[in-house]
Amino acid sequence: MRIALACVAVLAAAPLAALADEAGSALAATCAMCHGTTGHSVGGNVPLAGMPKDEMVSKFKAFRSGAMPATVMHQIAKGYTDSQLDQLAAFFAAQKK
Ligand code: HEC
Hints:
There is one protein chain. This protein is mainly α. It has a single domain (23-93), classed as Orthogonal Bundle (Cytochrome Bc1 Complex, Chain D, domain 2), CATH 1.10.760.10. The chain contains 5 helices and no strands. It has helices at residues 2-28, 32-35, 53-65, 73-77, 82-93. The protein starts with a helix and ends with a helix. Heme C binds next to helix 2, helix 3 and helix 4.
């Protein structure tokens, strides 16, 4: 009985995880122009791949509030909600450096 329940839980969790990942990668596509595909920057911009989730969230919020100096990230950071930021940060943190 316990085993059967565990299987149901695993099956139910899988599509949710896949959905979250898909949403994160769709959001991340808007960063690719400057930070590279999946955060692997080629043009000298800061690479985002492998950046720890907490670091990304705090830097992004610092851009949003203006606390961190920026040229373009102030405007960009204002365009995302906290839950979108969460998805973005999770996506980039999961990419190999
Ligand atoms: C138009 C180009 C452009 C786009 C699009 C862009 N960025 Fe940036 N990003 C920059 C630049 C340039 C910097 C350096 C700070 C500045 O001058 O604004 C930066 C800095 C950052 C940093 C700080 C990195 C560090 O360690 O200092 C983070 C985090 C970041 N961007 C995340 C994102 C995310 C997430 C997206 C997509 C939602 C994104 N950026 C889209 C140009 C861009």
